[in-house]
TrEMBL record:
It comes from the Eukaryota. Residues 282-624 form the Protein kinase domain. Its main location: membrane. Residues 188-232 form the LysM domain. This is Protein kinase domain-containing protein. It holds the Pfam family Pkinase. The keyword Membrane applies. Residues 250-261 have a biased composition (Pro residues). GO terms for biological process: response to other organism. The chain crosses the membrane at residues 273-295. GO terms for cellular component: plasma membrane.
Length: 646
């Protein structure tokens, strides 16, 4: 009797289930941990099934994962989304660094490719030894599967090499006819966290449990697994901050990893209260969030959205917090940049991949960079120094980043000093006073980078080509793409070493070329070379054939000039003829002495940039006293130097 009753109940339940879950209401059968079985193909691992909608907006979720994927900019590179969209969807800024494991929603375009929905991304293998599984499970956090990767790439599982570029199909979906009729607009690919149940996930997004079960062909008694994606149908855009798992990890009784039971039938009453509390919280948040979202949308009518760094960021801030918080970067649309640069026309090309842009009459420089440049963005937006080029905004488009900088009207120092090759051949040369100002400005910028940023930074690529000049010939140090944070662990040389030596020939310090040693003293060396360029007008490297034999380093010439007999004559001969003797030889001598110390082979013999900055401050104030028209004064200075140099 009991068995018959049981059987009928089961039958009724099954019938009910069949009625409730018509196949056309589902995206795909739940992956059910099959993504771990890379050697076998399953329909569910290939992707969600296409229905009548060919494409739609969809959402992925991703957990901020240090060291690399912690900013919307970096995450969007990985997932082929747009930093500004991620920022807007999560109420953060494009370059905000998120704490580890913060769940962000990532809006993407989802479309049909064969029978499956997917969003295409691409990935370049970084380290030898990465596998389809590690890429799918660890790098992409199960947003794709090893099976789908293998299916859509020609490279065999065992032939993966560093540097190879892979096509990455990310799992997404569009609502079915049935779901659309029920009011669902989007599908979100959700990464299940430890201890989460379907109902808890439903609570987070304000969706009833049954709709989620339907979308994944699950029943209330199904088991869902940690770190296996699940499709969540949504009637509205997802909330800007996703409240994390119903049970905080600390108090969590740490249920076994897979499987974690679906449903909360086993929860005790205190847990229920937690969930009730969260439901209320979520509802309030959802209402508030939606209201704020639409309000902010309504008010951001202008095409350029100002992404103001929210004050909640203080967790990642040091003493710079206050300034950080008030600074803002503009996020440009690609179309705006196209318009401002005349479609990146040749006439607006400044040099290389740098273009002049005009925003309503205000000039800016737009530089196109490949790959992830969030490091430079993150550094520059924290910097507020007159002598370091200011980043005003950026745009990410088709994998390229467009950085928008303040405009330096007079191009680079290189353009002015090394005439013959450049367009300033016919203009007047830089005067002594201007050169001293420029040297002082550059020292000021480096001093700031070395001693006033936290952590300290090394520019690593200082050269006259990276010293830009504004309308008043004040210097702006630019191109911080190679800049690195350095921590000095005491005097016993706790500095970083690199095997990847990059820089500009003629400016690289010997210890960096030979041992890859990165210290602030490498900037001091390059600064010395720039000083020598300012004095002599010569280039950092001259002569030499294609193999570099026969070339002369400017840094190697100064000792010869300043040592031995006839220093006065030799220095005069060394000075830039464009200065036409209109400089105080005594001060030129002091500057050459400083340059000589800066380019010393032994890095310990080089001054700190702060010392160089002080010496230049003195040279600058003496220069201000110096009257170029006073011939008598000038000859007296010359007289003094011949005395003092003996
Ligand atoms: C998998 O998909 C193929 C083609 O779409 C279909 O013929 C087959 O029945 C599916 N298998 C399962 C187990 O659903
Ligand atoms: C989807 O594509 C449309 C048009 O191509 C674009 O405007 C939109 O920003 C895209 N959405 C996402 C999330 O990338
Ligand atoms: C995504 O990639 C697949 C396979 O390479 C391709 O067939 C499809 O057209 C791509 N989809 C989009 C929207 O680019
Ligand atoms: C898959 O990735 C998650 C998150 O990084 C990790 O916890 C888990 O151990 C990985 N699984 C395997 C089998 O490596
Ligand atoms: C977005 O962040 C700001 C600053 O942290 C906060 O004041 C605001 O309430 C947030 N908006 C939403 C919708 O959460």
């Amino acid at each position: 009797m009991a068995t018959i009753q049981c059987a009928t109940t089961t039958l009724i339940l099954l019938l009910l289930l069949l009625l409730i879950i018509p196949r056309s209401n589902s995206q795909q059968e739940y992956v059910n941990n099959k993504q771990l079985d890379c050697n076998n193909e399953y329909n569910s691992t290939k992707g969600n099934l296409c229905n009548s909608l060919p494409s739609c907006t969809s959402y992925l979720t991703f957990k901020s994962s240090p060291p690399e994927y912690t900013t919307p900019a970096a995450i969007s590179f990985l997932l082929n989304s747009t930093p500004a969209l991620i920022a807007a969807a999560n109420n953060i800024t494009d370059v905000q660094t998120l704490p580890a494991d913060t769940l962000v929603t990532v809006p993407v375009n989802c479309s049909c490719s064969g029978p499956y929905y997917q969003h295409n991304a691409s990935y370049t293998i970084k380290v030898q030894g990465e596998t389809y599984f590690s890429i799918a499970n660890n790098t992409y956090q199960a947003l794709t599967t090893c099976q789908a990767l293998e299916l859509q790439n020609t490279v065999g599982m065992r032939d993966l090499l560093k540097g190879q570029n892979l096509h990455v199909p990310l799992r997404c979906a569009c609502p079915t006819q049935k779901q659309r009729e029920a009011g669902f607009k989007y599908l979100l690919t959700y990464l299940v966290s430890q201890g989460e149940s379907v109902s808890a996930i439903g609570d987070i997004f304000g969706v009833d449990e049954q709709s989620i079960l339907d979308a994944n062909e699950l029943s209330t008694s199904s088991v869902i697994f940690y770190f296996t994606p699940i499709s969540v149908p949504l009637k509205t855009e997802p909330p800007v901050t996703i409240p994390r798992a119903a049970i905080p990890p600390e108090d969590s009784p740490s249920p076994p990893l897979p499987p974690a039971p679906a449903g909360d039938g086993d929860s005790d009453s205190s847990k229920k209260w937690v969930i009730v509390g969260i439901v209320v919280g979520v509802v309030v948040l959802l209402i508030l969030g939606a209201a704020l979202f639409y309000l902010s949308k309504a008010f951001s009518g202008s095409t350029t959205t100002k992404a103001t760094i929210p004050t909640t960021q203080s967790w990642s801030l040091s003493s710079e917090g206050v300034r950080y918080a008030i600074e803002s970067l503009s996020v440009y649309k690609f179309e705006e940049l196209q318009k401002a640069t005349g479609f990146f026309g040749e006439e607006n090309k400044i040099k290389g991949s740098v273009y002049r842009a005009s925003f309503k009459g205000d000039y800016a420089a737009v530089k196109i960079l490949k790959g992830d440049v969030s490091g430079e963005i993150n550094l520059l937006r924290r910097i507020n120094h007159f002598n370091i080029i200011r980043l005003s905004g950026f745009c990410v488009y088709k994998g390229d980043t467009y950085l928008v900088y303040e405009f330096a009207e007079n191009d680079s120092l290189e353009d002015w000093l090394h005439s013959g090759s450049k367009k300033y051949e016919n203009s007047t040369s830089l005067s002594w006073v201007q050169r001293v100002h420029i040297a002082h400005d550059v020292a000021d910028a480096l001093n700031y980078l070395h001693n006033y940023t936290s952590p300290p930074h090394v520019h690593k690529n200082l050269k006259s080509g990276n010293v830009l000049l504004d309308g008043n010939f004040r210097a702006k140090v630019s191109n911080l793409g190679l800049a690195r944070a350095v921590e000095d662990h005491g005097d016993d040389g706790g500095f970083q070493l690199t095997r990847h030596v990059v820089g500009t020939h003629g400016y690289m310090a010997p210890e960096y070329i030979e041992n890859g040693l990165i210290t602030p003293k490498m900037d001091v060396f390059a600064f010395g070379v720039v000083l020598l360029e300012l004095l002599s007008g010569r280039e950092a490297v001259v002569g030499g054939d294609q193999n570099g034999s026969g070339e002369k380093m400017l840094s190697a010439t100064v000792n010869h000039v300043l040592e031995g007999e006839n220093v006065r004559e030799k220095l005069r001969g060394f000075m830039d003829p464009n200065l036409r003797d209109e400089y105080p030889l005594e001060l030129a001598y002091s500057m050459a002495e400083l340059a000589k110390l800066c380019v010393a082979r032994d890095l310990n013999a080089r001054p700190q940039i702060s010392e160089a900055f002080m010496i230049l401050s003195k040279i600058q104030s003496s220069t201000l006293d110096w009257d170029p028209s006073d011939e008598l004064e000038r000859s007296r200075s010359v007289g003094q130097i011949s005395d003092s140099s003996r």
